[in-house]
Amino acid sequence: MISVIVPLYNEGERVSALLDHLRQCPGLGEVVLADASDQPGSLAVIDELEARLEGDRMIRLLRCRAPGRAVQMNAGAAGCRGSVLLFLHCDTRLPRAAARRIRQRIAGGHVWGWFDLSLDARGPIYRLLERMIRARARATGIATGDMAMFVEREVFAGERGFAEIALMEDVEMSRRLKRRGRPAVIAETALTSARRWRQNGVLRTVLLMWKLRFLYWRGHSPERLAAVYDDVR
To answer: What is the pLDDT of residues 111-124, one digit of tens each?
Structure first.
C-alpha cells in the first residue's frame, strides 16, 4: 500500500482541492494530513474538515503541536500503514498513474525516487525553469519537496526519518538515500504551483535557491538559511 503524507501549515481552502485530487488518483492506500496551522481562518477550515473526515477510511487528519515540515512529515509517517511513503506538498498534483508508476519502480529494485516537476504557469520562462530543475535533480540525485518524493517505509525507518531541521530537510534526506541506491525518476510530471516564482520573480527566486544551496553546502545552519528564505516569501 502507498501512504501519502501531506504537511499542512495555514493552507486554508487549498486543502479541499488537494483532497478532491487525491480521491481521483487510483491506487493510493491512505492519506495522512499532518496539520500545524495556527491562523484562525485555516484552523476553522481544519476543524470543519476534521468533522467531515470522521469515519473516512482513506484520509486521516493528524494535529501537530508546532510547525516544521520535517517534524510534521515524520509524525505523519509514524502513523502510516503503507509499505511505501509518498511525501506531497499541498499545492502539488500527482499524475493519474502515480501509484502504478511507483509500484513499477519499487518492483524494479528501486527503494526511493521522485517525479519530474512541471509548473502551473504559462510562458517560455517557466518551461525553461522546469527543464533546469529536472536537469539539476537528475544530475545531482537530489530531490526537492515539490517533486513528490517516495521511499520504502523500511528504508525511511532505517534512516530514522527526515532530519528535523528548519530548511533543506529534503536535500539532506536525498543525500542519505543516495547511499541506499540510485533514485527512480518518473518522467510523468508532478504539477506544482508556480506562486513562489510569480510572487517574487523567477530570476530572484532562482538566485535565492542557488544561494541557499551553496550556503548549506558550505556548512551554514538550516536555521540561518530559513531566516533568509522567510524574509523573501
So the answer is: 999 999 999 999 99
- The verdict on pTM exceeding 0.70 is yes
Q: Are 14 and 90 in contact (CB under 8 A)?
A: yes
Contact criterion met (CB below 8 Å) for 38 and 12: no
Within a 10 A sphere around the Cβ of 134, how many other Cβ atoms?
18
What confidence tens digit (pLDDT) does each residue in 180-195 have? 999 999 999 999 998 8
CA–CA separation, 214 vs 227, rounded Å? 15
